[in-house]
Write a structure and sequence with these properties.
three-stranded antiparallel beta sheet
Length: about 300
């Protein structure tokens, strides 16, 4: 049935507006505006999001752009230059965002901003250079996914918001696919040990709540229902794993240490997918392979 549904198909499912992409029905949002003010609001949200997930210390203020650029250019040590490049990228992202704020204020004052305006050109240049310097940035946990996150403010600036959301729906579908892959891989390990039976329900709940969290934008009022449900499922899973380790003498957990570690890591990967909301294919592939190797070794 799914093969007959085309990407971009919309449908109301249980009171929720959804759009179909690559096997998944995803919560959709109706976006009819595409003004500078709309772009500014979205870029502000995406900028806060990306700074939340990246390494500390790179959220450099816009007014220190010239200072950090000079420091970056003068640095010869590769490791320190990488960090200074990340700090420069942060300052450029903030500069572009602040210029866009000025443009919005001018338009609200009745000043028409043409596409050839120097301010607009400078704004675009800042976002472009920040994107190029993004290769210097690492996520706070050192994992993958920074390319997708860091590029989002630039994509909002350069394309209509409606088109940007289409790219997001595709990424969310890919993320949901990875959520299912983690679930299936972990379940293959769980099913081999009776002491893990009670984790199955917790894993199923966390998997479903992870998908809901992934598809819901933070400005949607429904987030006040979705996010607490996700956090509750996350805490149940984590507490379940903690209790299993505490009671290891009764459960026989030391005899299945590798299995315990894999099942615990499954929860950590699901949490990461819920918060980043972008694919992390290398991490998921590696985890799935280790679960498969475990199956072969123990069967």
């Amino acid at each position: 049935m799914n093969s007959e549904i085309g990407n971009g198909t919309t449908r109301e499912i249980e009171g929720k507006s959804c759009v179909y992409y690559d096997g998944y029905w995803i919560r959709s949002y109706h976006l009819n505006k595409d003004s500078f003010a709309d772009k500014k609001q979205m870029i502000d949200l995406l900028t806060r999001r990306v700074f939340h997930h990246v390494e500390q210390g790179i959220n450099t203020p816009s007014n220190r752009l010239d200072e950090i650029r000079g420091i970056y250019d003068a640095e010869d040590d590769p490791a320190r230059k990488r960090v200074k490049g990340a700090m420069l990228a942060g300052s450029l992202l903030n500069r572009g965002r602040h210029i866009l704020t000025v443009i919005v204020e001018l338009e609200e004052a009745g000043v028409k901003i043409e596409s050839t305006n120097e301010l607009l050109h400078e704004c675009g240049s800042c976002f472009m250079e920040a994107l190029e310097l993004g290769k210097n940035i690492k996520l706070a946990d050192g994992g993958e996914g920074i390319d997708e996150l860091w590029g989002e403010p630039f994509r909002v600036f350069t394309m209509p918001i409606k088109e940007f959301f289409k790219t997001r729906y595709i990424k969310i579908a890919q993320t949901m696919s990875e959520i299912d892959r983690v679930n299936e891989a972990a379940r293959s390990v769980i099913c081999q040990f009776t002491e893990f039976d009670h984790i199955k329900v917790k894993l199923t709940e966390l998997t479903e709540m992870t998908k809901l969290a992934c598809e819901t934008i933070r400005t949607d009022p429904v987030i006040f229902d979705v996010w607490p449900r996700y956090i509750a499922a996350k805490e149940k899973y984590e507490n379940c794993m903690l209790n299993l380790s505490i009671n290891n003498n009764e459960t026989g957990y030391p005899l299945s240490l590798d299995a315990y570690r894999l099942v615990k890591e499954a929860g950590m990967l699901l949490v990461k997918l819920a918060t980043l909301r972008v694919p992390i294919p290398n991490s998921v592939k590696d985890f799935s392979q280790r679960c498969e190797d475990f199956d072969i070794k123990n069967n």
